[in-house]
Write a structure and sequence with these properties.
The chain is an all-alpha fold. The chain has a domain of about 50 residues. It is built from five helices and no strands.
């Protein structure tokens, strides 16, 4: 019987799931864009879609961005990524 090892999200994040491509998205949001609360998973998934993330990158993005992005910051980032896609 094979044993599957699960890591808590925080340990998984701290081990090696940071850096690019996630940092480049987070630094795009200027400090002047503020807000409170947390972005929805729907917003974060849409950002991942616009950024061309794989399914695995999406899961990592959700862990990284949930505590960092407010709904307002996520909205700003969505608008910026959509404008760059045009």
């Amino acid at each position: 019987m094979q044993t599957v090892q699960f890591f808590p999200p925080q340990e998984r994040f701290e081990s090696h799931y940071h850096g690019e491509p996630y940092d480049s998205l987070l630094v795009m949001v200027p400090d002047r864009v503020s807000g409170s609360g947390f972005a929805s998973d729907k917003q974060l998934a849409y950002i991942a879609h616009l950024a061309g993330f794989t399914q695995e990158q999406l899961l990592d993005w959700l862990l990284i961005a949930r505590p960092v992005l407010s709904p307002e910051r996520a909205h700003w980032l969505i608008q910026e990524l959509k404008a760059k896609a045009m």
